[in-house]
Every structure is written in C-alpha cells, then in structure tokens.
Design goal:
Layout (H helix, E strand, L loop, with lengths): L3 E15 L4 E2 L3 E2 L3 E19 L7 E5 L2 E2 L1 H13 L4 H6 E9 L9 H17 L6 H12 L11 E4 L13 E3 L10 E7 L9 H6 L7 H21 L2 H20 L10 H17 L4 E4 L5 E6 L3 H9 L5 E6 L5 E2 L1
Parallel strand pairs: 5-7
Antiparallel strand pairs: 1-4, 1-14, 2-3, 4-7, 4-8, 5-6, 8-9, 10-12, 10-13, 11-12
Helix pairs in contact: 3-4, 6-7
The structure holds (3R)-3-hydroxy-3-methyl-5-(phosphonooxy)pentanoic acid.
The site of (3R)-3-hydroxy-3-methyl-5-(phosphonooxy)pentanoic acid has 14 residues, from loops.
C-alpha cells in the first residue's frame, strides 16, 4: 500500500531596507542586505509526498489552484539541484500546492515567500532532525531566490558576511537581535502604481552589476549602510533609519539606470508619490519614509503609533490600490 504524507509551510515575504543587488557563484551576495519581514503577505505551500518505485524525480505543481508550468519548471530545477533533497526525491513523488495571500506583481517579492516556504517544507519532509532547522532552511531558500533566505526571522534580518557582526554569513540570514521599542511595531503600506509583471527580471539586474562602473562603490555603500542600520535599530534613531532606507531605494534604481543595458522600473507616478511623502514628512515631522523594490510601487514605512495620520495622508494620494501590511516574525511549518 502506498502512503501519502503532507506538510504545510507558510512563510512571509520581506522588503529590503538595505538592498541586495549583485551576486556571484551559487547565489552569494556581493554585499550584505537588511530587510523587514512582512506578515500578511505570505506564501503557503502544501507539500504532499507519496512513496514511489521508480527513481526518476517527479513533481506536480499548482499555483493558486491552477497548474503553472513555468513555476513548476523553475522549482523542479531547484529541487533536483539540491543534495539536501536527494533522499526525498528518490523515494517519493512530490505534489506542491502553492497559494499567495497577496496579488501577483504588486511590488511584494513573491519569490522570497515562495522559496522560503518551499525550502522549509522540503527540508522538513526530507529529514526528521530539528538541529539548526531554520539556518539550514534559510541556506536552502537562498539557493532558490537570494532574498528568500531573509524570510525566516523578524522583524529585522541581516544577510551577508560583515566583519563587525558576529554570526553573519553569506550562506544564510540571521535576525537583528537588538531592536529598540521605536521599531518593534512597524507598518508597510504598499502603494500600487502599476501591477504589470516586471520588464526586467532580478536575475538580469543582478548580472548587470558585474562590470558595472559603480559596482564596488555600491557594494561598499551597502555594507556600510547595514552596519549603520543595525546601530539605528538598536538606538531607536528614526532619522538614520529614514536616511538610509531612502538612499538605498534610490541607489538600487540608480544602479539599474546606469548599467550597460540601462533600464527604468520607476514611473513618473513613483516620483510624484516620493515627493508627496517627503513633503508630508517635512510639514508634519512624522517619522515615515519610502522604499522601492525592483518595480514602480512605493512602500511607505512608519511606526504603528502614527498609523491614523499616515492613513489620512495616503487617502489624499490618487493611486490604484494600497496593500497594508506590518512587520512580522517569520514563518512556520505545520
Ligand atoms: O532575491 P532576488 O534574486 O529576487 O533579488 C532581490 C533583489 C531586490 O528585491 C531588488 C532587493 C532585495 O534585497 O530584496
């Protein structure tokens, strides 16, 4: 009799405050990055695995209830490349049913939540051992999508080796341990300027950093920003948090605009919103700021304590839609 077992993993996405942009080798980052873990924007993956006789790997995949061949192929390639999953693949045929809590192409990194959930579910199914589970899963998630390795902790997470931060590594992410009460309850309102899929993939963008004339300066800047951000999070310094976060968003897009095959992901509306946010901050002295991912949509970050002021301000912005989220602590397997 064949038996089927199943495991469900639910992991959130994250938004980088200090951006990972440029990689080498096996998804190794050229600089350290630091992110805020989200909570409402998550991927849930139900992994069912059934004993089989043939040794050939088998994966059935669905996304939001529908087969999706492009995603299946990417995940199949990922699963078959990792030694950590060999046992599982040899003895079981796999079925993954993946659902996202958030709409597609909205500036929320779906590959981060998806690969975090996939890696955690597969690792749990493959080995009974709980030893260093989160670290191992973070490492495996990184091999699927770099930023996914940061979705395992929260609210703030560092990925990338920095001499001044004990335990930091290029292989996996670690939590930022000392967080001042000012930053314990942060919110993220995602302003949807456009919800079309990205014109240029992250992989293409990362690749354009090799040979980029400003690459070395950028990598140094990001590492410096990570250290400064860790210090700001510890001391509760909003001014530093805002200054680093906004310059990081602009540096990321400046890299895209100055690469050999330059491209723009921001839109006129993106700049209009950025100006409105910075003006509102000047007028009110409230601690809110913007960041951008690889796309035109604007993330507005602010402490929950000023939520009502920020919500009334956002109502004045003419925008397609807004997704409200807040910082979270990572995911679970059940
Ligand atoms: O994880 P990837 O390969 O999709 O790259 C993510 C890159 C950014 O989202 C632009 C920045 C980041 O650190 O998340």
């Amino acid at each position: 009799m064949t038996t089927t077992k199943s495991i469900t993993a639910r992991y959130p996405s994250n938004i980088a405050l200090v951006k990972y942009w440029g990689k080498y080798g096996e998804q190794m980052p050229c600089n350290a990055s630091l992110s805020m873990t989200l909570s409402q924007a998550f991927t849930e993956v139900k992994l069912s695995y059934t004993q089989k006789k043939s040794k050939a790997p088998a994966l059935v995949y669905s996304f939001n209830g529908q087969p999706h061949e492009l995603f299946r192929q990417r995940i199949f390639n990922y699963v078959t490349r990792q030694k950590a999953y060999t046992q599982l693949l040899e003895h079981y045929s796999l079925r993954m049913e993946s659902t996202n809590s958030f709409p597609h192409s909205t500036g929320i990194a779906s590959s981060a939540s998806a690969f975090a959930a996939i890696a955690a579910a597969l690792l749990k199914a493959n080995s009974a051992s709980e030893m260093n589970f989160t670290r191992k899963a973070s490492c495996l998630a990184r091999l699927g999508s770099g930023s996914a390795c940061r979705s395992f902790y929260g609210p703030f997470v560092l990925w990338g080796q920095l001499d001044d931060i004990r335990g930091s590594s290029n292989d996996y992410a670690i939590p930022v341990n000392a967080v001042h009460p000012n930053f314990r309850r942060m919110s993220d309102a995602i302003l949807i300027v456009e919800d079309a899929p990205k014109k240029v993939s992250s992989s293409t963008g990362h690749a354009l950093m090799s040979g980029h004339p400003f690459a070395n300066a950028r990598f140094k800047q990001a590492n410096k920003h990570c250290l400064a951000m860790v210090a700001a999070l510890k001391s509760g310094d909003f001014d530093a948090f805002i200054s680093i976060t906004e310059r990081e968003a602009l540096s990321l897009h400046a890299m895209m605009m100055t690469s050999q095959d330059y491209y723009f992901l921001i839109k006129p509306k993106t700049l209009e919103i950025i100006e409105q946010i910075t003006q509102f901050r000047k007028d009110t002295k409230l601690p809110l700021c913007f960041t951008l991912d690889a796309g035109p949509n604007v993330h507005v970050l602010y402490p929950e304590s000023i939520q009502s002021e920020v919500h009334s301000f956002l109502k004045q912005i003419s925008i397609k839609s807004i997704i409200y989220d807040h910082a979270g602590v990572g995911g679970t397997v059940f």
